[in-house]
Write a structure and sequence with these properties.
Blueprint (H helix, E strand, L loop, with lengths): L1 H4 L13 E4 L6 E4 L3 H19 L5 H15 L10 E5 L6 E4 L3 E5 H4 L5 H16 L2 H9 L21 H9 L6 H17 L7 H15 L6 H4 L6 H13 L9 H8 L3 E2 L7 E3 L2 E4 L4 E4 L5 E4 L3 E5 L5 E8 L6 H10 L5 E9 L2 E12 L2 E11 L5 E8 L5 H10 L8 H4 L4 E7 L4 E2 H4 L10 H7 L7 E2 L4 E6 L5
Parallel strand pairs: 3-5
Antiparallel strand pairs: 1-2, 4-5, 6-17, 7-8, 8-9, 10-11, 11-12, 12-16, 13-14, 14-15, 15-16, 17-20, 18-19
Helix pairs in contact: 2-7, 3-5, 5-8, 8-11, 9-11
Length: 482
């Protein structure tokens, strides 16, 4: 079953024999199976896949601000003439990642935990360093494989995947863990680039202290920066030493705390329920107005592109996504898949599910390792929305397949308006009305949108630490119904 959840493809599909390439940072020739042109292609092909999977955060001003800081840092890097792209993605994970070719992604989730523009410059400088030092190409050459674990369950049937093969490979690179040496090099370059760009690198060590707190609080429940950028040692100590040396004798270095905090006003914090959310096993999607009950005991996961569930011991899985049906009825869409050769057979019937026209049955499609049999449903939702639900079990007709089909037939419009009219929690700036601890001050400021401990990390303080009156606080206020 793992082979169908983790997509892998041989490096030989995209590269030929090894050759030497010049490293922009060291100036030395290195054996590499990935050319700079192939790096550019990976970044280019991966961009639409990343946006489909995560979405661009809907705040043009904030996105432009992040890009401006990134461009300033990239301009003093070892590849100043590369066409750099800095994109703010709409994901709550506390993370940032780089793709080859100058594509850098920052989640909205990490922005809430940073305290200044200089800290943002340090994070972006680190990611720029991964690109300029060609760490992805180095890792790909070392591993001899592009196939990497995805953050969501994937049905390994090429004809029904939401992305191109190259796009899927690029998505896999987002979860690449670099070597300890690569992380140290990126830390060094991050400090160097931020300082050359005019930022105070002495802000950077505090970033790692905060991210360690986030990682410890999250455990293994969500992907955070420290999981894809493992600490090669005492990162906080090391960057402090690097920053002290880099800043020595320099004046006028920027921190820009007030400017940075100003841009955080109204930032969405945590999961945005408008993009879909779970309550136990029931998934609600307010924007396209549907709900569905996943099988009891199955692990569930939601991303912008797909909703997925995995059965016990990975013996079964199912995945729901939207597909472009071209306005066709579900049965006509199935016939079009057969005509196009995307399905080799389809046995099922039209029926009503939740009042929607649907086709439910069993399909066979070409897979990575031979034909794959899937339980399937195509449901014509509101408007022109066509939903595709694919499920796989160990043996067609077994109990897990029956659970998948039962789940499919719970698809229906959202019944309770309270589950439709939802808003996310947001970050707001407020001065401390008096001296006191964060624990005491937050209720006075409406800060009930996240736990006190979470908001302590967001503000870089301890929950019981005495704070001065007037101190600017990042307060997470809860969402509300329309």
């Amino acid at each position: 079953m793992n082979r169908r959840i983790v997509a892998a493809v041989s490096l030989a599909l995209l590269v030929g024999v090894g050759s030497c390439a010049k490293n922009p940072v060291t100036g030395k020739s290195e054996l590499s199976l990935v050319s700079s042109g192939q790096e550019m292609q990976l970044g280019l092909e991966g961009y639409p896949a990343v946006l489909a999977e995560y979405g661009k955060y809907d705040d043009a001003a904030l996105g432009a601000y992040v890009d401006s800081v990134g461009q300033r840092v990239a301009h003093v890097s070892h590849l100043p003439d590369l066409k750099w792209h800095f994109t703010l993605v709409d994901d709550s994970a506390v993370n940032a990642f780089a793709m080859p070719g100058g594509y850098i992604y920052v989640t909205r989730g990490i922005l809430a935990y940073l305290g200044s523009e200089a800290q943002l410059a340090g994070v972006l400088g680190h990611e720029v360093g991964h690109v300029t030092h060609r760490h992805t190409a180095e890792a790909m050459t070392r591993q001899q494989i592009y196939g990497l674990g995805f953050g969501v369950l994937q049905v390994a049937v090429p004809s029904l995947r939401p992305y191109s093969g190259a796009g899927q490979q690029a998505l896999g690179l987002l979860f690449l863990s670099y070597s300890r040496g690569a992380e140290t090099q990126a830390d060094e370059l991050g400090v160097e680039y931020a300082t050359k760009a005019g930022y105070d690198p002495r802000e950077i060590p505090a970033t790692y202290a905060t991210l360690k707190r986030v990682s410890a609080a999250a455990g293994a429940s969500i992907p955070v920066y420290m999981s894809t950028h493992p600490d090669p040692g005492q990162r906080e100590v090391t960057t402090r030493q690097l920053a002290t040396t880099a800043a020595a004798g320099k004046t006028g270095l920027e921190i820009s705390q007030r400017k940075y905090l100003h841009h955080l006003e109204g930032l969405v914090f945590g999961t945005d329920p408008r993009q879909g959310y779970f309550e136990k096993q029931t998934f609600y999607q307010p924007e396209t107005n549907f709900q569905i009950e996943f099988p009891a005991g199955w692990k569930t996961q939601n991303s912008r592109a797909t909703v997925a569930a995995g059965g016990p011991d990975q013996q079964a899985m199912m995945q729901l996504s939207q597909t472009d049906g071209g306005g066709q009825a579900p049965d006509a869409y199935v016939h079009s898949l057969l005509s196009a050769g995307k399905l080799t057979s389809a046995q099922g019937n039209s029926e009503k599910i939740g009042g929607f026209d649907s086709w439910v049955g069993r399909i066979v499609t070409p897979g990575d390792n031979g034909p794959v049999t899937l339980a399937a449903a195509f449901i014509k939702g509101e408007g022109k929305n066509l939903f595709q639900v694919l499920g796989e079990s160990a043996t067609p007709g077994d109990a897990n397949e029956q659970a998948i089909l039962t789940s499919i037939r719970t698809f229906r419009p959202i019944a309770d308006e309270a589950h439709k009219n939802v808003h996310p929690a947001r970050v707001h700036l407020a001065p401390a009305p008096s001296a006191g601890t964060l624990t005491a001050l937050l209720p006075k400021l409406g800060g009930t949108g996240a736990s006190v401990d979470e908001q302590a990390i967001v503000n870089g303080v301890e929950a019981d630490e005495q704070l001065q009156a007037g101190k600017t606080l990042k307060v997470v206020r809860p969402g509300a119904a329309k």
